[in-house]
Amino acid sequence: MASAPASQGSRLFRRLSIAGMATALLGLGAVTLSSQTSSWLARRKKTAELDRKRWEENAKMADAYGAGSTLEDLENAVEAYSKR
Fold first, then answer.
1. Taking residues 31-51, what's their average pLDDT?
2. Which residues make Cβ contacts (< 8 Å) with residue 71, sequence separation at least 6?
3. Tag placement on the chain: N or C end, fewer CB within 10 Å?
4. Rounded CA gap, 61 and 53, in Å?
5. Is 61 within 8 Å of 80 (Cβ atoms)?
6. Where does 1-84 have alpha helices with state H?
7. CA 78 to CA 84: how far, in whole Å?
8. What is the pLDDT of residue 5?
9. In terms of C-beta density within 10 A (0-12 exposed, 13-18 middle, 19 or more buried), how is residue 25 classed?
């Protein structure tokens, strides 16, 4: 009967070890997910900024082109385009 408590103790130790490993893995997964989310947000912010700049430049080109019905409008557009 002396072996029963030792066996129960090793089972308890094994279960605690498994629980500890599971907790560590869940924590590692949470840190990895947090890091990936931060990277994604940074990329999204950078992409939004590039899109905004591109939109502004396209709007400037459209303004320079004007109505496009006169030679002066076309010359202004060519001048604005060459400054890019």
1. 88
2. none
3. N
4. 12
5. yes
6. 3-65, 71-83
7. 10
8. 57
9. exposed
